[in-house]
């Protein structure tokens, strides 16, 4: 704990809390004549499951933001990336096709395959472990819940920063469903729909689907094809079995597939433009427009996954209920891109450097099981449970002259040049025998292609074939106790207690074949047996808090909580590294309040935390291999901040929502080397490895200020065809300066910016017909969402948020 941070936090929180409570009645009492004469209206009560049981948002001492189905559609929220512009405590970008989710400055700081995120993602209570698979669940949703701050008690593993929960629409007894279609700029065509209802007296069902197609935001000037296009399909099915009055079961299955040229990094500039010796060896083939990507081959993203889950509920009596939730999830992905971000043929024979076309294949199988018991009495409300998680990942990373094969001469390298070991040496020392070309292809994961061709083409110069496994279990519980049941004077005070014991075992192997000298030298080999490493981590993460119902419409709370993320392995040639676990200690003060008979809700939270052993990686140039990955723990970071969420039904026709987040997140103790400092480049004449003291630097993806304000006004109510209503919707989002590395370099950051979205929406009186014209990023801001320093080619790449888009949507609900 840092006392200066806490004092600054309290000094910021106190005036806001006083201002809200003092001015709530006076300022907001100035209603329009229309509102004063209208029937009483108020905001709908929001029920959430952030505490693993259904409760009112205003009754829980947890910072939660929600968006329901109607709001998601009105704001054209289709991805997790879209959510961040409505909920400013979230930051999300992606590189290497993996979601980089951050909440309050805590998130995944590595692009290495196999590393888990620090923000958990759940769909109907089931965790989605792979960051690559976390962007496919946003369709046919009842709501989205974003739980901010460490959730060590209830969510446990990898919820150091918080959790994002997708709650899908469930079957109903009555026939219910919708169809919706959207056309828009860049050739967008999106369709979605759902149908549910009773199949028999005791079986309910619901099916849903979504398709997304779009032309590219840019193009490859060499091939003339689109890049950053979109081609995705997804579907889900629920079957509810009403076994008895007290017992029900649900079977859920979902599937998704993506096949397009999205997600690849775009060229920003050469890393060292003013140092001739370090100029990119593939310079001259770069695209000139920021959203374009030049290359001999188009980038490719192919992903497919499916899952099956079962949920069994037994409502024992009015006080006790039991739940069992079990799921299996499979994910397969293949991603290709040129690490040189250039159309030049990077090969020893043409540029004097090793080839740079990367392919990453990833396969993952995940099992989860959770058992819960929920208790609700006049004085106690709580849940206890057991959780099990197992994931087996098989990432294969290769670098060659093209997506599947390597350079001429690699056959000779594998067949005739002496192979030797990187550390550690084999028992008794010595060297490995030469690889056959077929053995090289087996490691490269291209043996099937060889068999299809019925000949042996050139294998790649870099092949890293890894196996990364996690096996975890936990016992957890959380309860809120009404202290008034024991002491009359504490009638308005509740005590919250929680805790989780976690045990996780992690192991990895990183077999690899690498032709040294960028393809000119002998072959370095690592075997799975030589690189095997296994570690077990144990942690207890407690939670304790107080809730004070100061007024019927106001609750104040304080919570101390801890979070834990097990040590991660890396997908890197020959690596025997498993880092230390991340741990966080968090203090939070909060206010939940409503005013004017529920027409206004104002919620506020202030927090400060310390996080140790942040897991960070980056790449450096290497004259033998082309790049070297450094994966390490940052010693310590800390942060403090304040968040304010406001919702108001100003008049029967006028509604507003707003959120503001302030975050000061910095390193306290971290010494490391910057890849874009030329002194750390072995090809520099003044090569002198230099580490920097990063204390005081801002952490990644942590803007100091972020906010959103949206408003809706009903222009016509019940006077349009079919008693329809026309509504204007507008939204402004702001993001302060954001750094994408811990070195706070200008080139790898995004300056502050604001974006504007707007729409005009028609809805019939019975709610069945809807239509809207909409526009997003109307000022066409070019905004980076992530950057990456590509050591193989001495260039810096970036991904960008979407450009200005607009379109028309129409839907029918039945």
TrEMBL record:
Signal sequence range: 1-29
Transmembrane segments: none
Pfam families from the UniProt entry: Plug (PF07715), TonB_dep_Rec_b-barrel (PF00593)
SUPFAM superfamilies: Porins
Origin superkingdom: Bacteria
Membrane topology according to the record: Multi-pass membrane protein
Keywords tagged on the record: Cell outer membrane, Ion transport, Iron, Iron transport, Membrane, Signal, TonB box, Transmembrane, Transmembrane beta strand, Transport
Protein name in the entry: TonB-dependent receptor
């Amino acid at each position: 704990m840092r006392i200066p941070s806490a004092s600054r936090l309290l000094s910021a929180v106190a005036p806001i809390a006083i201002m809200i409570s003092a001015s709530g009645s006076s300022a907001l009492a100035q209603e329009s004549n229309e509102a004063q004469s209208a029937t009483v209206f108020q905001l709908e009560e929001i029920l959430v499951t952030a505490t693993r049981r259904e409760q009112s948002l205003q009754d829980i001492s947890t910072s939660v933001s929600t968006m329901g189905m109607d709001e998601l559609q009105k704001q054209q929220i289709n991805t997790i990336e879209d959510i961040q512009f409505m909920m400013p405590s979230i930051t999300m970008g992606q590189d290497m096709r993996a979601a980089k989710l951050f909440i309050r400055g805590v998130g995944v700081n590595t692009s290495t395959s196999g590393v888990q995120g620090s923000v958990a993602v759940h769909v109907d209570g089931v965790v989605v472990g792979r960051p690559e698979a976390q962007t496919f669940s946003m369709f046919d949703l009842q709501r989205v819940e974003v739980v901010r701050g460490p959730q060590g008690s209830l969510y446990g593993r990898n919820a150091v920063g918080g959790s994002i929960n997708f709650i899908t629409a469930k079957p109903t007894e009555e026939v219910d469903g919708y169809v919706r279609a959207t056309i828009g700029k860049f050739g967008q065509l999106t369709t979605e729909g759902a149908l549910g209802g009773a199949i028999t007296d005791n079986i309910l069902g619901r099916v849903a689907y979504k398709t997304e197609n779009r032309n590219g935001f840019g193009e490859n000037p060499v091939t003339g094809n689109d890049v950053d296009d979109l081609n995705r399909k997804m579907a889900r099915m629920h079957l509810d079995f009403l076994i008895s009055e007290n017992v029900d079961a649900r079977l859920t299955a979902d599937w998704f597939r993506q096949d397009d040229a999205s997600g690849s990094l775009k060229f920003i500039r050469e890393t060292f433009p003013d140092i001739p010796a370090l100029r990119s060896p593939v310079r001259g083939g770069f695209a000139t427009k920021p959203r374009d990507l030049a290359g001999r081959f188009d980038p490719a993203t192919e992903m497919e996954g499916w899952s099956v889950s079962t949920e069994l509920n037994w409502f024992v009596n009015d006080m006790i209920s039991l739940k069992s939730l079990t799921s299996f999830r499979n994910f397969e992905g293949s991603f290709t891109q040129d690490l040189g971000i250039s159309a030049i043929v990077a090969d020893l024979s043409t540029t004097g450097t090793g080839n740079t076309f990367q392919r990453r294949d990833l396969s993952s199988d995940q099992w989860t099981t959770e058992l819960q018991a929920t208790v609700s009495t006049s004085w106690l409300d709580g849940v206890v449970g057991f959780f099990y998680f197992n994931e087996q990942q098989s990432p294969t990373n290769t670098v060659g002259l093209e997506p599947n094969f390597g350079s001429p001469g690699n056959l000779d390298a594998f067949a005739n040049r002496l192979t030797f070991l990187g550390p550690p040496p084999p028992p008794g020392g010595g060297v490995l025998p030469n690889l056959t070309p077929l053995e090289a292809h087996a490691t490269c994961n291209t043996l099937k292609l060889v068999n299809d061709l019925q000949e042996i083409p050139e294998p790649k110069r870099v092949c890293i074939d890894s196996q990364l496994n996690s096996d975890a279990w936990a016992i957890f519980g959380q309860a809120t106790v009404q202290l008034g049941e024991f002491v009359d004077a504490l009638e308005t005070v509740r005590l919250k207690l929680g805790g989780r014991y976690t045990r996780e075992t992690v192991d990895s192997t990183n077999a690899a074949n690498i032709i040294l000298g960028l393809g000119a030298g002998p072959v370095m080999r690592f075997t799975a047996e030589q690189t095997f490493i296994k570690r077990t981590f144990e942690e207890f993460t407690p939670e304790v808090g107080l809730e004070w119902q100061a007024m019927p419409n106001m609750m104040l709370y304080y919570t101390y909580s801890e979070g834990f993320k097990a040590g991660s392995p890396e997908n890197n040639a020959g690596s025997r590294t498993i880092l230390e676990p991340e741990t966080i200690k968090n203090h939070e003060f909060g206010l939940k309040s409503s005013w004017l008979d529920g027409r206004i809700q104002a919620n506020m939270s202030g927090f400060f935390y310390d996080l140790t052993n942040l897991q960070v990686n980056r790449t450096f140039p290497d004259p033998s291999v082309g790049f070297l990955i450094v994966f390490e723990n940052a010693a310590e970071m800390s942060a403090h901040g304040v968040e304010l969420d406001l919702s108001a039904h100003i008049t029967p026709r006028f509604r507003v929502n707003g959120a503001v987040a302030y975050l000061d997140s910095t390193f306290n103790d971290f010494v490391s080397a910057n890849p874009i400092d030329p002194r750390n480049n072995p090809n520099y004449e003044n090569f002198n490895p230099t580490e920097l003291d990063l204390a005081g630097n801002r952490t990644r993806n942590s803007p100091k200020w972020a906010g959103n304000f949206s408003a809706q006004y009903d222009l016509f109510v019940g006077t349009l065809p079919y008693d329809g209503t026309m509504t204007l919707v507008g939204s402004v989002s702001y993001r302060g300066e954001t750094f994408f590395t811990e070195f706070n370099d200008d080139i790898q950051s995004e300056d502050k910016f604001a974006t504007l979205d707007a729409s005009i929406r028609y809805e019939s009186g019975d709610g069945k017909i809807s239509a809207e014209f909409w526009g997003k990023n109307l000022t066409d801001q070019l905004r980076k969402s992530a950057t990456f320093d590509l050591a193989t080619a001495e260039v810096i790449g970036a991904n960008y948020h979407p450009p200005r888009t607009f379109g028309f949507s129409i839907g029918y609900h039945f």
